[in-house]
Amino acid sequence: MLKFISFGSGSSGNCYYLYTDSDGLLIDMGVGIRMLKKYFRDYGINMAQIHQVLITHDHADHIKSVGSISHDLHLPVYASREVHCGIDRNYCVARKVEAADRHYLEPDCTVQIGEFKVTPFTVPHDSSDNMGYEIEAGGTVFCLVTDVGHITEDIASHISRAHYLVIEANHDVEMLMQGPYPPHLKERITSGTGHLNNVACGEAIAQNMSEHLRQVWLCHLSEENNHPELARKTVETVLRSYGIIVGKDLQLEVLKRTKPTGIFELI
Predict the structure, then answer these.
(1) Which of 57, 39, 69, 72 is nearest to 262 (CA)?
(2) Helix boundaries (H) for 10-143
(3) DSSP one-letter string for 183-210
(4) End-to-end C-alpha distance for the chain, whole angstroms
(5) Do residues 67 and 87 make contact, with C-beta atoms less than 8 angstroms apart?
(6) Mean pLDDT for each consecutive 10-residue tract of the chain (267 residues)?
(7) pTM
(8) Contact 259, 8 (CB under 8 A)
């Protein structure tokens, strides 16, 4: 059975864990390694079950501990060549990923990584590069799209295949525009290479989901420009305008910024 945990989702640190009874895939490593070890102990999960790491992009909140965990657990790290170069340049990453542990992914090229069939796809964002992931295991399709400026046709096609979807709902536009951020930062966030707002997130789900979509998790919420209940209600309202009823047609939850979730069983 495929299982999923979020250990953190937001600018303070992002880290997700997808695993089976015998294989584990960590997606992003933006939380502290000591904290991650504590979380694994709390859940009674053996960290030795982590066999590989996927990285979406090279911003610090997604990579700051990737070299440390790769070194400590002897883990291969999969990312695009541009992201690996970005990790090398990022001063927030104290320990870099060793050359022998670097594995390079290309967009739209499916690879088998342990028990997981992984298809990376390009996500527009103002990092060196950014990829979302469609991950299939045992016939179940899990899709993650984070730090996304806008929804492309390619992203839409991957959403349409998902049984389970993690997607960014970063900000409420009104909160952002009325908030204290300087104009250049507001412009960056709302640009086509910035972050997805709540309404755009709801529309991305509604316009591209199939009848196979079972659950959606909203990720990477802004602490200053969003609120979990606001994000959920906004997305739910957008879905309802398309005739999609949360709780009936799909389940919808918001991932916490700095705390782990429970263990979700993806059946």
Answers:
(1) 39
(2) 33-43, 60-63, 66-73, 81-89
(3) HHHHHHHHSTTS--BHHHHHHHHHHH--
(4) 7
(5) yes
(6) 97 97 97 96 95 98 97 97 97 96 98 98 98 97 98 98 98 97 98 98 98 98 98 98 98 96 95
(7) 0.97
(8) yes
